[in-house]
């Protein structure tokens, strides 16, 4: 009886060993940790773009308050949107809240409007489109400087060229950088022929300086400054008079008919 119990116990132990061996074979094999593999995986991540951004932020915030203020104004002019300090910081990396000098410059700038929360670009003339632009120019019969219109809205230069096709006059001042926009209005008035003859019969001075003096005498500002232009031309060595072409001297050739043969010394250079 004891022998049978021992055999049964041995069989159970054998079965248990077989089951343990089978379970160990079915368990997945775990790869040991390799530091080299971890390093190669980490090197796949690139931080160059982030480093460049941080360097740019540091450069901007270390610049002068005037430079940072200009950067913000350029952003406001380009976007034409009302932006908070956080939005400005995210767009151009200027921390308006942290830099009191920049904040004071922006809030007191004539080109910026601050309502207590947002900053927005403030042009000299609040215009939105070509219709409003034309209406403004028509209110200035004596002309308005184009420089005062160019910051009204982004496409103002394109609209000025379009209006110049028949709605306005764009006249350039050759003695300064100013261009003037005038309203165009033909008035539809018929002028008598005698009036035209009288107008055309008026003799104008031939020198522009005399014309400018006449305009100044009558309270008008000339669009040109001939005296200044001539002085600059003299400093630069440019003559006001048209340069006369020098005539090329012709030498005596064999085909020249000799006269005054009693003066042979005049023809020493003539080869026989």
Give the fraction of residues assigned to helices.
40-55%
Please tally the helical runs, counting DSSP H or I stretches of 4 or more residues.
Answer: 11
Strand order in space, largest sheet: 1-3-2
What value does the Rg take, in angstroms?
45 Å
Average predicted local confidence, pLDDT? 79
Ends apart, CA distance between termini: 161 Å
Q: Uncertain regions: pLDDT < 50 for 5+ in a row?
A: 41-45
Secondary-structure-derived class = mainly alpha
Overall strand count: 6
Q: SSE string, helix = H, strand = E? A: HHHHEHHEEHEHEEHHH
Query: Describe the biggest sheet?
Result: 3 strands, antiparallel
Overall geometry comes to elongated
Strand content: 5-15%
What does this structure look like?
Among the domains are: about 50-120; about 130-185; about 195-235, no CATH class. About 45% of the residues lie in helices and about 10% in strands. With about 270 residues, it is mostly helical. It starts with a helix and ends in a 37-residue tail after the last helix. It is built from 11 helices and 6 strands. The strands form 2 sheets. A 3-stranded antiparallel sheet has the order 1-3-2. The chain has a 3-stranded antiparallel sheet with strand order 4-6-5. The chain has helices spanning about 1-25, 35-40, 50-60, 65-80, 85-90, 100-105, 130-140, 155-165, 195-200, 210-215, 225-235; strands at about 85, 110-115, 120, 145, 170, 180-185.
């Amino acid at each position: 009886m004891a022998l049978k119990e021992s055999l049964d116990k041995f069989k159970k132990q054998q079965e248990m060993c077989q089951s343990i061996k089978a379970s160990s074979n079915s368990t997945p094999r775990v790869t040991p940790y390799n530091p080299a593999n971890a390093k190669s995986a980490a090197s796949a991540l690139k931080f160059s773009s982030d480093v460049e951004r941080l360097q740019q932020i540091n450069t901007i915030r270390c610049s002068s308050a005037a430079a940072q203020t200009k950067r913000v104004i350029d952003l406001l002019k380009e976007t034409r949107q009302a932006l908070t300090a956080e939005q400005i910081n995210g767009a151009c990396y200027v921390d308006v809240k942290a830099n009191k000098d920049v904040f004071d410059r922006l809030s007191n700038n004539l080109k910026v409007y601050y309502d207590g929360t947002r900053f927005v670009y403030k042009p000299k003339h609040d215009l939105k489109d070509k219709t409003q632009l034309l209406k403004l120019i028509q209110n200035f019969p004596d002309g308005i400087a184009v420089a005062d219109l160019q910051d009204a809205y982004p496409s103002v230069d394109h609209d000025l060229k379009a209006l110049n096709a028949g709605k306005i006059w764009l006249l350039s001042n050759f003695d300064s950088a100013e261009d003037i926009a005038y309203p165009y209005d033909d008035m539809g008035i018929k002028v008598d022929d005698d009036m035209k003859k009288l107008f055309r019969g008026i003799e104008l001075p031939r020198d522009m300086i005399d014309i400018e003096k006449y305009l100044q005498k009558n309270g008008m500002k000339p669009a040109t400054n001939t005296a200044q232009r001539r002085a600059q031309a003299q400093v630069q060595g440019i003559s006001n008079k048209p340069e006369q072409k020098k005539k090329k001297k012709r030498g005596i050739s064999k085909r020249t008919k000799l006269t005054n043969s009693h003066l042979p010394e005049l023809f020493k250079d003539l080869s026989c």
